[in-house]
Amino acid sequence: MSAKESIGFIGLGSQGGPMAERIAAAGYPLTVWARRPEALQPFVDAGARAAATIAELGAACDHVGICVVDDDGVAAIVEELLAAMRPGSRIVVHSTILPENCQRLAPRCAAKGIAFLDAPVSGGGAGASAGTLTVMCGGQADDFAAARPVFETFGGMIVLLGAAGAGQRAKIVNNALMAANMGLAHAAMQAGAELGLEGAALRELVKASSGRSFGFEVYARLPSPQAFSHGAPLLVKDVKLLKATLPEAAGAEALRIAAEPFLSAAIGADLTETHP
């Protein structure tokens, strides 16, 4: 393959869009596909090629990144790519999905001569735009090495954690911890209020003291838990993924219990009822 592989990207939302922009800005030929034509136009205007179908994108590309919302979406896209991509090409899943699904996809790709990596990211759209995402990878070492130059267009810390699915395991642990830290921040502020402490002063004190965490800092910026209603469903999903992966594990249950009161308040419903 040439120094600048042909890259495809599917999933041009708030996370995937800036990642695709960074790939194109680094000089990689970029092909994009989306269900909504209006999502494609900014990329076409910047020089990317829009594919009419997933299969067309797959046939044209050496490396295809996927950053859609859920397991079903990833599975459907990979199914179409497998029928179209060349041996020696590569599929990379940036979505956060069940590790077991990545373990099932990897041998199916290998049977077609296609490399598979799971590479979920942390840092949000802002991190992608800045090129500072953390990229957590699972897969074969040689495939990781081949994909790394693409990851470096949007990533700062880029780590191979093991075989297929390992990146997903790291991501859901990280996100469940984030949710738990926000839940503990919620509980701490409630306790402070019950002790008669002024909320704004307590928030500033904790941010400068040993109880601080990134989760607390995010929580402290919220006027109320409901103000996090846009981000809460993604954390709910990741807490559920960890619990589904480790249904009997004390650690996963402890993180769920810590996260639940805040996430329930943020989504305006009992988490145990709406997200079993």
Could you describe the 3D structure shown?
It is a single chain. The protein is α/β, with parallel strands linked by helices. The chain folds into 2 domains: 7-164, Rossmann fold, CATH 3.40.50; 169-274, N-(1-d-carboxylethyl)-l-norvaline Dehydrogenase, domain 2 (Orthogonal Bundle), CATH 1.10.1040. The protein is built from 13 helices and 9 strands. It has helices at 16-25, 37-45, 54-60, 71-82, 99-111, 124-130, 141-151, 166-194, 199-207, 214-220, 232-245, 250-267, 271-274; strands at residues 7-10, 30-33, 49-50, 63-66, 90-93, 115-118, 121-122, 133-137, 155-160. Strands 3-2-1-4-5-6 form a 6-stranded parallel beta sheet, with helices on both faces. The chain has a 3-stranded mixed beta sheet with strand order 7-8-9. α5 links the parallel β5 (90-93) and β6 (115-118). α1 packs parallel to α6 (124-130) and α3 (54-60) crosses α4 (71-82). It starts with 6 loop residues before the first strand and ends with a helix. The relative contact order is 0.10.
Note the gap between the termini.
Answer: 46 Å
What share of the residues does DSSP label as strand, in percent? 5-15%
Low-confidence stretches: none
What do the pLDDT scores average to? 95
Form type: elongated
Rg, Cα atoms, Å? 20 Å
Number of strands: 9
Query: Helices and strands, in N-to-C order?
Result: EHEHEHEHEHEEHEHEHHHHHH
Key words describing this protein structure:
Rossmann fold, N-(1-d-carboxylethyl)-l-norvaline Dehydrogenase, domain 2, elongated, 2 domains, single chain, 276 residues, alpha/beta
